[in-house]
C-alpha cells in the first residue's frame, strides 16, 4: 500500500473519541515490555546469542545496536525516559568503562566483527558526553562490530548541549542522522515544562547540520503540554515547517504522574483538554500535508525523499523499540542501563538502576534482569500487529503461509470485534484482508489492541497512555 496521504484526513467525532480513545500500548514490540518476566535471565540471552552465532545466516543478517546514555543536566517535567539528572560529567567516563565491559560480554558470545547496519544513541541526552567520550564510544563499537558503510547511524541531540562545532564532531564520528528534541517553541510552554531553548538556537543548528550533509534530520514535537493552545501550537508548526526537517515525530503528551515522578511538577490545570488536543493534532496533519510530508504512521511524518517514506511506499517499514525503522526485522543488541534488546524470538531488558548495572558487570554478567521468550502464538500475533502498525493493512494469506494457520478460524473472535469497528468506519474487513481507513489511523493502536492476547486477559490499562 502506498504511504497514507494526510490529504483530506477526517476529524473524529466526539462520540468516536469517547468510545475509542482508550489507554493502550504503542506497540514498539509485541508482546509489550510490561509483559517481560524476571524468570527470563542472562542465561536465556546467552542461548539466543549462541543460536544466532551458530546459525547459517548469522554473518549475513546485520545487527542493530541501541546504546542508552542516561545522563541529563536538567530535568524536563514531561519526560518519561529512564534518566539520571547530574552536572557531574565525570560520571560519563565511568559509564563508558562499564559499557565496554558489556560490549565485551556480547562479543564473547557473538564473536568480533558482526555487521551492524543501524546504530542509535538515545537517552537521557547522549550529547551529555563530551566529544572525546563520544569518540571513545564509537571507537569501542568499531573494535567489536563491523559498521556497514551504508548504515544508518543516528543520535538524539539536546539543542542546548551542542553548537556547530559539536555537530561537525558528530559527523566526523560517522553519525549521518540527527534527532533534535524541540517539543514546542513557545516560551510559556517551555517554561512550564522546564526546558527553555530559544528557537534561534535550533534554527542555527539546523542550518549548520544541512551544510554538513546529514542524510536525515528529525524534529520531535509534543502536543498536549501545559500552556499549549491550538493557536500557540500553530505558531510552533509554522516555525518547524520553516526548518523543513526530513522527519517529524509528533507525540501526544501522556500525563502519568503515578508512574513518572517528574510529571508531578506539572500543573494539571494548565493542561489542554481533549478537544484542544484533537484540534492540535488535526491542524498539525493539515499543516504537514500542505508542506508535502508523507504520513508514515501513528506519530511519524517524513518528506517523500526520506528513507522512512520510501520504506513505507515499498512495504519495507518495520517497528522496533525506537519506533518506526527502515531496517529489516533484525536482531537488536541493547547496551546500557534499561536498554532493551531482541535476539531471535526473545526480548530482554537491562536493569534500570546504575548501581545494579555496574554490579552485574563487576561480576562479569550481562546486566539483564527480565525478558521474554516468545511463544508461537506471540509470533503470529506480532506479525499481525506489526503489519497493521507499519502498513495499515493485512492480507490474511501472508500470515497463513508464514505460520500455517487458517486466519479466519484462528482470529474468529477478533474479527467479530473488528466488524464493530467497521461499522464505525475505522477498518474495512472482508474474507481475505483487513485495511485501516483514514479515520482508523487515529485509532490504529486500538485496532492493534484487538489482537493483543495479553490485554484480552488483563483489562488494567491505566499504565498506558491514551491513544489520542
Short description:
The chain has helices spanning 14-20, 42-54, 90-110, 131-144, 164-172, 187-192, 199-212, 230-243, 274-290, 307-313, 354-362, 376-391, 396-403, 407-410, 412-423, 444-449, 453-457; strands at 63-69, 71-72, 84-85, 114-123, 145-157, 177-183, 216-223, 247-252, 294-297, 300-302, 318-320, 323-325, 332-335, 340-343, 346-350, 368-373, 393-395, 427-429, 433-436. The protein has 468 residues and is α/β, with parallel strands linked by helices.
What does this structure look like?
It is built from 17 helices and 19 strands. With 468 residues, the protein is α/β, with parallel strands linked by helices. The chain folds into 2 domains: 304 residues, pyruvate-formate lyase- activating enzyme (Alpha-Beta Horseshoe); 82 residues, Arc Repressor Mutant, subunit A, CATH 1.10.10.920. A hairpin with a 2-residue loop joins strand 9 and strand 10. One of its GO terms (molecular function) is metal ion binding. It is an enzyme of class 1 (oxidoreductase). It catalyses: coproporphyrinogen III + 2 S-adenosyl-L-methionine = protoporphyrinogen IX + 2 5'-deoxyadenosine + 2 L-methionine + 2 CO2. It holds the Pfam family HemN_C.
Amino acid at each position: 500500500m502506498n504511504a497514507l496521504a494526510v490529504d483530506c484526513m477526517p476529524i473524529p467525532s466526539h462520540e468516536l473519541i469517547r468510545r475509542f480513545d482508550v489507554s493502550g500500548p504503542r506497540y514498539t514490540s509485541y508482546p509489550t515490555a510490561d509483559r517481560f518476566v524476571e524468570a527470563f535471565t542472562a542465561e536465556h540471552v546467552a542461548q539466543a546469542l549462541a543460536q544466532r552465532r551458530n546459525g547459517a545466516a548469522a554473518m549475513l543478517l546485520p545487527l542493530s545496536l541501541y546504546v542508552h546514555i542516561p545522563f541529563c543536566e536538567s530535568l524536563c517535567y514531561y519526560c518519561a525516559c529512564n534518566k539520571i539528572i547530574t552536572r557531574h560529567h565525570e560520571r560519563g567516563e565511568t559509564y563508558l568503562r562499564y559499557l565496554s565491559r558489556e560490549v565485551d560480554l556480547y562479543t564473547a558470545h557473538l564473536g568480533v566483527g558482526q555487521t551492524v547496519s543501524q546504530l542509535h544513541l538515545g537517552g537521557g541526552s547522549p550529547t551529555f558526553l563530551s566529544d572525546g567520550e563520544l569518540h571513545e564510544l564509537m571507537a569501542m563499537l568499531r573494535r567489536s562490530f563491523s559498521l556497514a558503510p551504508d548504515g544508518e547511524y543516528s543520535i538524539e541531540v539536546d539543542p542546548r548541549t551542542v553548537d556547530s562545532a559539536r555537530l561537525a564532531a558528530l559527523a566526523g564520528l560517522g553519525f549521518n542522522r540527527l534527532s533534535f528534541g524541540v517539543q514546542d517553541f513557545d516560551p510559556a510552554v517551555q517554561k512550564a515544562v522546564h526546558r527553555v531553548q530559544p528557537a534561534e538556537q535550533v534554527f542555527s543548528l539546523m542550518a549548520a547540520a544541512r551544510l554538513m550533509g546529514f542524510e536525515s534530520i528529525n524534529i520531535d514535537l509534543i502536543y498536549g503540554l501545559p500552556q499549549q493552545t491550538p493557536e500557540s501550537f500553530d505558531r510552533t508548526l509554522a516555525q518547524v515547517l520553516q526548518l523543513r526537517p526530513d522527519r517529524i515525530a509528533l507525540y501526544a503528551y501522556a500525563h502519568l504522574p503515578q508512574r513518572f515522578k517528574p510529571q508531578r511538577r506539572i500543573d494539571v490545570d494548565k493542561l489542554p483538554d481533549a478537544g484542544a488536543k484533537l484540534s492540535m493534532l488535526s491542524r498539525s496533519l493539515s499543516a504537514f500535508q500542505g508542506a508535502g510530508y508523507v504520513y508514515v504512521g501513528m506519530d511519524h511524518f517524513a518528506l517523500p525523499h526520506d528513507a522512512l517514506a520510501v520504506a513505507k511506499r515499498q512495504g519495507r517499514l518495520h517497528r522496533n523499540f525506537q519506533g518506526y525503522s527502515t531496517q529489516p526485522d533484525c536482531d537488536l543488541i541493547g547496551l546500557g542501563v534499561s536498554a532493551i534488546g531482541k535476539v531471535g524470538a526473545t526480548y530482554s531488558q537491562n536493569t534500570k538502576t546504575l548501581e545494579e548495572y555496574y554490579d552485574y558487570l563487576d561480576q562479569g554478567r550481562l546486566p539483564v534482569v527480565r525478558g521474554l521468550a516468545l511463544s508461537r502464538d506471540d509470533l503470529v500475533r506480532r506479525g499481525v500487529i506489526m503489519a497493521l502498525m507499519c502498513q495499515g493493512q493485512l492480507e490474511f494469506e501472508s500470515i497463513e503461509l508464514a505460520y500455517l494457520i487458517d486466519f479466519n478460524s484462528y482470529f474468529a473472535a477478533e474479527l467479530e470485534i473488528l466488524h464493530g469497528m467497521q461499522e464505525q468506519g475505522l477498518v474495512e474487513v472482508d474474507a481475505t484482508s483487513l485495511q485501516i481507513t483514514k479515520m482508523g489511523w487515529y485509532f490504529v493502536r486500538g485496532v492493534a489492541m484487538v489482537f493483543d492476547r495479553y490485554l484480552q486477559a488483563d483489562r488494567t490499562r491505566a499504565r498506558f497512555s491514551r491513544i489520542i
